[in-house]
């Protein structure tokens, strides 16, 4: 039984006979997308974990793409009716859009076990544990026999619009060069499944021999990594033409460690 952002008003804090609960089925998975308090933030979705596994995409409060201005939201690609609905309850309705996308992406929407979204964002809950990460949505029940705790909260990030799934990688870059400069470092991943756009690893002061780490949510599963593209740029014209390289780049795949 899959709960798509189960309702908060009149249900949160009520007995289990009244609301969705893990006792309602052999396996209950829940997607939480609109858990801000109803008053004053008009959150429609229940906040506590109530299933066997509970997914909190993007932290479960504010979904990417839902902060578009009213005009662009209402004149939506999906038509006036869906655009108007999305403007009124965009976060709440993301749950069924994630679910429908999950049918097409059996390897997508990996949920990382974590005690909070902030810890997930900082990389503290990366990579997936040995038993793996469950997939949010249609294929969540593949994880049914691997659950080891009463409460399992899972976090992940999604894209702003379809296609929604993102794949998480840890990228570590050690720089080489002669002098420190200011600027930014970008990395793109190439693999058997395709290549990503450039993702920023760090910006600011770049020091040779220093190591910089970032967790990137890539727009596709690159599969077996075959190549990494490294690019750095300084933010203004430097007459000394500094040179900077990458001594090493390490990529860790969240899914299979």
Automatic annotation (TrEMBL):
Catalysis performed (reactions): long chain 1,2-diacyl-3-O-beta-D-galactosyl-sn-glycerol + H2O = long chain acyl-3-O-beta-D-galactosyl-sn-glycerol + a fatty acid + H(+); 1-(9Z-octadecenoyl)-glycerol + H2O = glycerol + (9Z)-octadecenoate + H(+); 1,2,3-tripropanoylglycerol + H2O = dipropanoylglycerol + propanoate + H(+); 1,2-didecanoylglycerol + H2O = decanoylglycerol + decanoate + H(+)
Topology in membrane: Peripheral membrane protein
GO biological process, one term: lipid catabolic process
SMART domains tied to this protein: LH2
Gene3D superfamilies the record matches: alpha/beta hydrolase, PLAT/LH2 domain
Cross-referenced SUPFAM superfamilies: alpha/beta-Hydrolases, Lipase/lipooxygenase domain (PLAT/LH2 domain)
Stretches assigned to the PLAT domain: 167-257
Alphabetical keyword list: Cell projection, Cytoplasmic vesicle, Disulfide bond, Hydrolase, Lipid degradation, Lipid metabolism, Secreted
Gene Ontology CC: extracellular space; neuron projection; zymogen granule membrane
GO MF, one example: lipoprotein lipase activity
UniProt-annotated location(s): Cell projection, Neuron projection; Secreted; Zymogen granule membrane
UniProt keyword annotation of Disulfide bond present: yes
Main location: other
InterPro entries on file: AB_hydrolase_fold, Lipase, PLAT/LH2_dom, PLAT/LH2_dom_sf, TAG_lipase
Pathways per UniProt: Glycolipid metabolism; Glycerolipid metabolism; triacylglycerol degradation
Entry EC no(s): 3.1.1.26
Family: Belongs to the AB hydrolase superfamily. Lipase family.
Entry-linked PANTHER family: LIPASE, PANCREATIC LIPASE-RELATED PROTEIN 2
Protein name, UniProt field: Pancreatic lipase-related protein 2
UniProt lineage: Eukaryota, Metazoa, Chordata, Craniata, Vertebrata
């Amino acid at each position: 039984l899959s709960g798509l952002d189960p309702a908060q008003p009149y249900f949160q804090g009520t007995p289990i006979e009244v609301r969705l609960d893990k006792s309602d089925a052999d396996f209950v998975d829940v997607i939480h997308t609109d858990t801000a308090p109803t008053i004053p933030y008009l959150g429609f979705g229940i906040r506590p974990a109530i299933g066997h596994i509970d997914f909190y995409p993007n932290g479960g409060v504010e979904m990417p793409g839902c902060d578009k201005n009213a005009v662009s939201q209402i004149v939506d690609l999906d038509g006036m009716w869906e655009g108007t609905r999305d403007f009124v309850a965009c976060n709440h309705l993301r749950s069924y859009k994630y679910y429908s996308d999950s049918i097409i992406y059996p390897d997508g929407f990996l949920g990382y076990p974590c005690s909070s979204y902030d810890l997930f964002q900082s990389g503290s809950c990366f990579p997936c544990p040995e038993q793996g990460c469950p997939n949010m949505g249609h294929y969540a029940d593949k994880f049914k026999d691997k659950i080891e705790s009463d409460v399992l909260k899972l976090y992940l990030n999604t894209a702003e619009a379809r296609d929604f799934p993102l794949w998480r990688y840890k990228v570590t870059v050690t720089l080489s060069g002669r002098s420190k400069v200011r600027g930014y470092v970008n990395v793109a991943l190439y693999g058997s499944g395709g290549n990503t756009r450039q993702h920023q690893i760090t910006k600011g002061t770049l020091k040779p021999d220093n190591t910089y780490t970032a967790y990137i949510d890539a727009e596709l599963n690159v599969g077996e990594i075959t190549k990494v593209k490294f690019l750095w740029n300084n933010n203004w014209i430097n007459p000394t033409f500094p040179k900077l390289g990458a001594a090493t780049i390490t990529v860790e795949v969240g899914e299979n460690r």
